[in-house]
Amino acid sequence: MSYLTLAYASAFYFAVAIMALGLAYKIRQFWVTPAPLKIPLMPAPMTQRGVAFRMAREVIYFESLFKSNKWIWLFAVLFHAGLVLALLRHLRYFTEPVWFWVVLVQPFGIYGGFAMLAGLLGLWARRFLVERVRYISSFSDHLMLALLVMIGISGLTMKYVAHTDIIALKAFALGLMRFDLQPLPTDPSLLLHLGLVLTLMIVFPFSKLLHVPGVFFSPSRNQVDDAREKRHLAPWAAKLDVK
Amino acid sequence: MAKKPEFAVPQLRKELENPAIVEGAMAHSQPYMASPEHNTDLGFPGELVDGWEMKAVDKLGDLLNKNRALRVYLDSCVKCGACTDKCHYFIGTGDPKNMPVARQDLLRSVYRRYFTWPGKIAPKLVGAKDMTKDVLDDWYKYFHQCSQCRRCAVFCPYGIDTAEISMAARDIMDHIGLGTKYNNEILGKVHKIGNNLGLPENALINTMEGLEEDVEEETGIMVRFPVDKKGADVLLVTPSADFFAEPHVDGLIGYAKVFHQAGIDWTVSSYASEAANFAMFIGSYEQMHKVAQRIRQAALDLGVKRVIFGECGHAWRVAYSFLNSLAGPWDFLDPKYPKPQHILEVTHDLIQRGAINLDAAANDDKVLTFHDSCNVARATSMGGIEGGQFIIPREVIKASVNKFVDMDPGTIHEKTFCCGGGGGLLTDDLMELRVKGALPRMEALQDVVDNHGVTHMAAICAICKSQFAKVMPYYDFPMDMIISVHQLVGDAIQLGTKE
Fold first, then answer.
1. Strands B456-459, B482-484: parallel, antiparallel or unpaired by DSSP?
2. Same domain, yes or no, for B228 and B112?
3. What's the domain count of chain B?
4. Is B7 contained in some domain?
5. Which residue, among A27, A68, A145, A232, would best test binding to B if mutated, counting the most B CBs under 10 Å from its CB?
6. What is the predicted pLDDT for the residue at B3?
7. CB-based contacts of B233: which residues, under 8 Å, 6+ apart?
8. Residue A243: per-residue pLDDT
9. What are the strands, taking DSSP E only, across chain A?
10. What is the model's pTM?
11. pLDDT digits (tens, 9 = 90+) for B3-29
12. Cβ atoms A190, A164 nearer than 8 A
């Protein structure tokens, strides 16, 4: 077993552990922190089912962003939808035999890769071209975009410029899952691609990528409009009632 | 006409393009600080405490554990820019720190520094900042340039509500001894006397008797304005501005006429003679709780069956969304009615049932438009239907006036613009901010004045009414253009035809 394979394999386990534990920690923190008051943005659904529908609209087609700004919306949808397709395409490396629908999704994964890059570059351009967005961008915002763009480019490089040995790669991936390490191909674009993805996984729970769990915990969007009917009381606030 | 301002009043724009960024454009704007006794009256330190830096950080940590919204909102922003052009204060001033995300970042940078790994290890990289005097100065200035209207949140993909963040920042500042004169002095009056104005019981009784005489003189009918009437069915809780100032008082007269014709037995309380709860503005749950408990106490003491709130925006937020948490359960009230109820819900229901007679022709000298108050629009509802807060006021206006037009759809309903004076900023020391913040509403109003001959704008919020009466003259609108919805009802109601 080469040092390189060992290094990437251990980095992989490390990154998965950091991402999983970090996210679990943050999600637990969001979960246990009480929302002391009813603050849904009105008009809000009056049932739990309605809230689920509202949340689905936000998560699937970015309803509020659409209301706000069509350019950001367009780039954000291109990026996120592209990313989803690209991720689904990658499932072929982790399944054996490859699931039927993952086979079907393969070409869309490629389109997704391009859409993702287009969206990212659009979002990045806004950080330079739109005065307001330039003002609010910090260095880490640029770094995050750079990271994602490089992931996209290194991935597409392997499809169109310098093929890697995907049979060996798949053996490596399956080996990781089965704790039976197999040698990793050593193409630079693959090593770069994987290294960047692992970096992304590690920064996930410490960065603005927390918007992924955060969106579901936003009280202004996940609360039901029923304050007059049901008394809503945080445990720490209940203590104020007892004098 | 208002006296000549010491600042340039913005021009009404024909094309609504975004303002150019002018750094520091409003860096001189801040409210008067509270004197030590105004702070200590509320249990806060009198002045900036020793070691305030870490005490502020500790308070932030305390709030992070108590308020999920704060925690999630500080973690979730991706700086997409969706909110950047949505704040009326940014539109009116061009100061980049009035962009909602930039305002949030004043607090978020401190959060990152003390509560996240990247901020502890590499603060520069992620825009994390130490809690310094410069940061605190920016907090005091710019968290008092937010009217907590929630407009930015409507457009945020995560619903990040800058109001929650500015409330937290103000709460932290109060806890290290940095309060505002306007809010803390008023809250002290509520705790001592029962209302924002400091109107004592005998003055309240005199005022209400005076109103009885005025109405009788004008209509020939004795309409009661009861105070502290034990055993009344309804406790009316209304902003104290309704007791004495134009155009508010005409709204109060309207409520009284509605109650009179519908035969509703009502009273106000001298102990809880205030619907407003400025503790919301300073983000203090404890203070809000204390103020709200007065209403519970009054309802119990007077033995009423229903609690009805008068026209007041943030008060309706506290009433509709918070009162059950703060001062519930309200199981001693009549379960047939919502607890509490808005006066517009009551009037609307009476109109529907034909229990009051309105003649809209009485208001034929007017063409109306309606300003959705931010707190009513984005933080409450009415009538038990989604969007009732938009429908019910308009239905009541249309029953009272023949000519009504809405303003531009991008400026009403959930997208309504704040009047510019909400969130504890309705003070003369912030006049420039108030005038500039009113710009988007003034533009939408000018549009319906020019194209539809609108003569009056109705509102259901005491702050909106006071703010507009004050700032409209800067934009060459007459100050009496702003009126209460219940003034229209009161003028249209045909007394003596039902009762």
1. parallel
2. no
3. 2
4. no
5. A68
6. 54
7. B264, B265, B266, B304, B305, B306
8. 58
9. none
10. 0.96
11. 556 899 998 987 777 888 999 999 999
12. yes
Q: Are residues B206 and B95 in the same domain?
A: no
CB pairs under 8 A between A and B: 208
Same domain, B130 and B263: no
The predicted structure's pLDDT at residue B498: 81
Q: CB A126 to CB B75 under 8 A?
A: no
> What range does the domain containing B483 cover?
187-492
Q: Which residue of A has its CA nearest to B377?
A: A42
Residue A151 class from Cβ within 10 Å (0-12 exposed, 13-18 middle, 19+ buried)?
A: buried
ipTM of the assembly? 0.96
Assigned token pair, B176: 């290290």
For residue B324, the chain A residues in CB contact (below 8 A) are 227-228, 230-232
At A7-58, the pLDDT tens digits run 999 999 999 999 999 999 999 999 999 999 999 999 999 999 999 999 999 9
Residue of A nearest to B320 (CA): A228
Residues of chain A neighbouring B380 (CB-CB closer than 8 A): 42
pLDDT, tens digit (0-9, with 9 covering 90-100), for A65-95: 999 999 999 999 999 999 999 999 999 999 9
Q: Are residues B154 and B233 in the same domain?
A: no
Q: Are residues B212 and B165 in the same domain?
A: no
Mean pLDDT of A170-192: 96
Of A135, A211, A227, the CB nearest to B320: A227
> Is B31 within a domain?
no
Q: Residue B8: inside a domain, yes or no?
A: no
* pLDDT band at B1; cut points 50, 70, 90: very low
CA–CA separation, A107 vs A84, rounded Å? Answer: 13
> Which residue out of B324, B336, B345, B374 would a mutagenesis test of the A interface target, given it has the greatest number of A Cβ atoms within 10 Å?
B324
One domain for residues B309 and B452: yes
Per-residue pLDDT tens over the stretch B219-269: 999 999 999 999 999 999 999 999 988 899 999 999 999 999 999 999 999
Domain boundary among B153, B179, B205: B179
Quote the pLDDT of residue B4: 59
Same domain assignment for residues B168 and B98: yes
What residues have CB less than 8 Å from B217, skipping those under 6 apart? none
* B431 within some domain: yes
Same domain? For B112 and B236 the reply is no
Sequence spans of domains, chain A: 3-241
pLDDT digits (tens, 9 = 90+) for A113-144: 999 999 999 999 999 999 999 999 999 999 99
Give residues with Cβ within 8 angstroms of B271, minimum separation 6: B194, B228, B294, B297, B298, B301
Closest partner residue to B71 (CB to CB) among A30, A58, A136 is A30
Return the SS3 of B176.
Answer: coil
* φ/ψ (deg, to 5) at B423: 65, 25
Please, how many CA atoms are within 13 Å of residue B167, restricted to the half-sphere of its CB? 26
Q: How many residues does chain B have?
A: 499
Could you read off the pLDDT of B151-174 as tens digits, one per residue?
A: 999 999 999 999 999 999 999 999
User: What distance in Å separates the CA atoms of residue B440 and residue B421, rounded to the nearest whole number?
Assistant: 13
The rounded distance, in Å, linking the Cα atoms of A14 and A20 is: 10
CATH fold of A3-241 reads Fumarate Reductase Cytochrome B subunit (1.20.950)
Residue found by looking up tokens 């239905």 in the block: B395
Longest dimension (CA), chain A: 73
